[in-house]
Design brief:
Number of strands: 10
Helix content: 40-55%
Shape: globular
Strand order of the largest sheet: 7-4-6-5-9-10-8
Structural class: alpha+beta
Radius of gyration: 22 Å
Number of helices: 12
Number of domains: 3
CATH architecture of the largest domain: 2-Layer Sandwich
Largest sheet: 7 strands, antiparallel
Distance between the termini: 11 Å
Strand content: 15-25%
């Protein structure tokens, strides 16, 4: 998939880093030599990277590398609200400030994260006092990371500090950033503990222009709340902004709900469908980096149009005429290249 890591704001997504590919297809081996850039028709490397195994099996990839930075560090900043935090993120990107990592949690995700943080007694007391202030009652935690030489990082932080202070932000120091960086790969395993405790957990992500970000954020939260209410329950929804660009950013939602025995899949399906319909209607993309898979495939036409789906299906027929490569993924089963007799994986 066209995936993105947590440092994508600085280093780019995987499709920015792939220079060349070798792909095994039913029609034969297809090699696209590594090039810095090319105007020889559409960019086929990106097309193959985003095909999710539907057009072929990548057997070799040439990646763009860069030297390891001399230093890496970051800072945690508390902003007085979601809108103020989004404005700071937008100003950083459009001002060309070289940020490697950017992660703005909304009030719900900020509060949830604080309950998980292993704070010292002194830090815990200071946190309660800070969040008790009227200004930070709906505070949002912004994590900013940078890399490079000491002089460049110092200058970057000074520029960023002017922006967050102008928005009423309060720097919490480096400890919060370093703790998140050390624990970030442990967080997904909380899902198993929550499931064992009777809570369903899922995530979804999208992207939108800066001008449309608030509408997508509000629409998804409202859709999940309505869908949960229709099921006779309440869902807990958190969100963070990450993977930012000059013209927009990704929104990553996490939602939790109390599981009803025997109705778990129906609950999840109702919540997931409501959120996906809402983000598309509000102008968000179907996925920023998770991809399409089989779950999102029925929604693909709403983003790329009927012509787009037909073009992808035509390419699949040319490269995989018997539909044996990852069937059921990317292309909806209603296309004439997806025989209903073939099985499909989960996306």
């Amino acid at each position: 998939t066209r995936s993105a890591g947590q440092r994508s704001t600085g280093v780019g997504k995987i499709d920015d880093l792939v220079a060349g590919l070798e792909v095994a297809t039913e029609a034969g081996l297809w090699r696209l030599a590594a090039q810095p850039a090319s105007a020889a028709g559409p960019e086929l490397r990106r097309l193959l990277i985003g095909s999710e195994g539907r057009f072929g099996v990548i057997t070799e990839a040439t990646l763009r590398l860069r030297p390891l930075p001399e230093r890496e560090d970051g800072v945690a900043v508390l902003l007085p609200g979601w809108a103020a935090g989004v404005d700071v993120c937008r100003a950083l990107l459009q001002g060309g400030v070289p940020v490697e990592t950017m992660r703005l949690a909304d009030p719900e995700e900020t509060r949830f994260g604080m309950t998980l943080a292993a704070l010292s007694p002194l830090a815990a007391r200071a946190s309660r006092v800070l969040f008790g202030l009227r200004r930070y009652r709906n505070g949002c935690l912004l994590l900013l990371g940078w890399a490079g030489d000491t002089q460049g990082m110092t200058l970057t932080e000074q520029i960023a500090a002017r922006l967050w202070r102008a928005a009423g932000g309060f720097a919490l120091g480096r400890a919060g950033w370093r703790r998140w960086r050390a624990d970030r790969f442990r967080h997904p395993y909380l899902r198993d503990e929550l499931l064992a405790a009777g809570w369903g957990v899922d995530t979804l992500e999208t992207a939108a222009p800066w001008s449309g970000l608030e509408a997508v954020y509000a629409a998804v939260r409202e859709a999940l709340a309505r869908a949960a209410a229709a099921l006779g329950m309440r869902a807990v929804v958190g969100c963070h902004l990450s993977h930012a660009y000059r013209d927009g950013a990704s929104l990553y939602f996490t939602f939790l709900w109390p599981l009803a025995r025997g109705r778990e899949i129906a609950q999840w399906s109702a919540l997931k469908s409501a959120a996906t319909d809402a983000l598309l209607a509000a102008g968000g993309t179907l996925s920023h980096h998770h991809g399409v898979g089989s779950i999102h495939a029925p929604y693909l036409e709403r983003e790329v149009g009927r012509t787009g789906v037909a073009a992808l299906a035509a390419l699949a027929r040319a490269l995989d005429p018997h539909a044996v490569l990852n069937p059921g993924v990317l292309l909806p089963r209603t296309t004439n290249h997806e025989p209903r007799t073939t099985g499909g994986g989960q996306g």
